[in-house]
Amino acid sequence: MKIAVLPGDGIGPEIITQALRVLDVFKSEGMKIEIEEALLGGGAVDATGSPYPEATQKIARAADAVLLGAVGGPQWDNLPRPQRPERGLLGIRKDLNLFANLRPAVLYAELANASSLKPEIVAGLDIMIVRELTGDIYFGEPRGITTENGKRVGRNTMIYDEDEIRRIGRVAFQAAQRRNKKLCSVDKMNVLETTQLWRDVMNELAPEYPDVELSHMLVDNAAMQLVRNPKQFDVMVTGNIFGDILSDEASMLTGSIGMLPSASLDENNKGMYEPCHGSAPDIAGKNLANPLATILSAAMMLRYSFNDEASATRIETAVKKVLAAGYRTGDIFEPGTQKVSCSEMGDQVVAAL
Amino acid sequence: MKIAVLPGDGIGPEIITQALRVLDVFKSEGMKIEIEEALLGGGAVDATGSPYPEATQKIARAADAVLLGAVGGPQWDNLPRPQRPERGLLGIRKDLNLFANLRPAVLYAELANASSLKPEIVAGLDIMIVRELTGDIYFGEPRGITTENGKRVGRNTMIYDEDEIRRIGRVAFQAAQRRNKKLCSVDKMNVLETTQLWRDVMNELAPEYPDVELSHMLVDNAAMQLVRNPKQFDVMVTGNIFGDILSDEASMLTGSIGMLPSASLDENNKGMYEPCHGSAPDIAGKNLANPLATILSAAMMLRYSFNDEASATRIETAVKKVLAAGYRTGDIFEPGTQKVSCSEMGDQVVAAL
Ligand SMILES: CC(C)[C@H](C(=O)O)[C@@H](O)C(=O)O
Ligand SMILES: CC(C)[C@H](C(=O)O)[C@@H](O)C(=O)O
Description:
Two copies of one chain form a homodimer.
Chain A: E1 2-8, H1 12-28, E2 34-37, H2 42-48, H3 54-62, E3 65-70, H4 85-95, E4 100-106, H5 119-122, E5 126-132, E6 144-148, E7 151-161, H6 162-178, E8 182-187, H7 193-205, E9 213-218, H8 219-228, E10 235-238, H9 240-253, E11 261-265, E12 271-275, H10 292-304, H11 309-324, E13 327-328, E14 338-339, H12 342-352
Parallel strand pairs in A: 1-2, 1-3, 3-12, 5-10, 8-9, 8-10, 13-14
Antiparallel strand pairs in A: 4-5, 4-11, 6-7, 11-12
Helix pairs in contact in A: 1-10, 1-12, 6-7, 8-9, 10-11, 11-12
The complex binds 3-isopropylmalic acid (2 copies).
One 3-isopropylmalic acid sits between chains A (86, 89-90, 244) and B (190-191, 220).
């Protein structure tokens, strides 16, 4: 199994190092993994002028899965658009056709206090957000800033065709089948025709998944319901831009975004795996970052791309053990627990494995 | 002062009745108000075939302000698009050029428990969200569902010109000047050119308001920060669709959306005033609804359209008194307080005035 590893910017390299140590444990036990590192994001721009350089494209396309740290940082914010680090991220998503973004929002019992919500509202929270990742207003044309009658005008295009909606719908229905069999599709059908089509196609798919209970919710209401009573949700499916907003809102309900992994899959379960959090330039290089989201992303990689449920669960169990034993990086520290560095957290997970 | 009153659907008529009783108090003291009722929404469709009938257009255009209850209900959900109740709402906003939607998210001390967030996170919350209301992907063309190469395709257009951004920017900067002088502009400039222009224009306006501290935040981060630490915000300004999502999220932070009014203003402070909550068909006609958001909307009307700060404050003080005295409708009831009906709540506010 070939893994392209893209450490990226900020804390990316540190957290990736710990995830690779975890994979090394499996390798030493005989798992066949081959790792090739490549550049993505700001570091890639500095070295090559492009945030998703050709060399990286080759390695990523040839790999069975991609493990990514994080990209971006203030020093690249003022570059021209095509050179900004996030273009690298959007570029690799589109290039590898990673249309299905799975973002679990799970609250670990040991970390319940970290949430800004009342414990009874979030205890046991376990939502899976399925976000479409290669369409919508992110990639729609026409787009840009033009001058019309002497005025600057900004324009973007929200667009989905029924095939794009159907394939992400199937991923979401199947995810619901493996969980609590409830799927909530989020749209803004009362205003946007694009999302009327979204709702229509979801309804058309429903008879193929009779064991899944499909419901629909408007995006403004969904943003409210996530705050009011998030445990009403099992799987949510939505388009790229609404998914961007709602998945971040949902992950913050846990109060411990340093714990949350994500997967972005193509139609053959090739995938890119990365933590939900960003590159945290303020603590980069200080050995302070929480590597658990990246380690859990590696677990998702074993599950989805390598179909190795046992190894994935073994990593997840090790992480739970380490939390239960009281080890915490700074972002999830509370009095009475033991503060550890990024690499010490890696030590603990490796030991627990 | 001429007020067009649009009770609308569901609980609309009940809550409007209580707001009118409050205005009657001022009338009996000599305030010159003239009230004309008209149809909007589902009831208007039933009576005339249109959710914003011509008769209503005439009355609304001639009025100095519009007071609206709520529109919509399940019985109209399957009508063709142009006849749906929300088309009435979008129609009147556009017709009257009500581009500036002001949505306060305020947590009343007495109701702090109602929030799903921890008290220390939300106690004293007081955010003003300024949402652009007549542009963006809500009204952009081209739009619709077409068939291309045998596939259905849904399409909408996000569009803003610099004048539209500038005028809502000014409203937001001025709101910040009257408050804590902090303005956070929300966009998605790393992906959407439309919102790159938004950010550029906000930056261009900033020097005209040197007493206001302008910051920028990406919409996904804003959705997170509202959950993590909402009290960091004073005034937020954003486009129509992001504002739809974030203002609903922010209002739910209070846990008492039945308390929140809103104003939608044109360039001359003509405005439409309505509660943030919907038409609640499930409790319609039962005298159970909370009329306070509508009563507080009438207060906003006196403040913004009639420039009568004293009367507005008097209503707000009366509402606070009633809460302090322990009166609660069902939606905000907790043990130890006294449950009252919609009309009894109106009685209490009138008495407190
Ligand atoms: C960095 C940005 C382009 C990206 C997105 O909007 O998709 C990020 O917010 C995410 O959710 O992965
Ligand atoms: C009913 C709907 C069209 C409307 C909107 O999206 O603007 C509502 O959600 C609102 O926020 O007033």
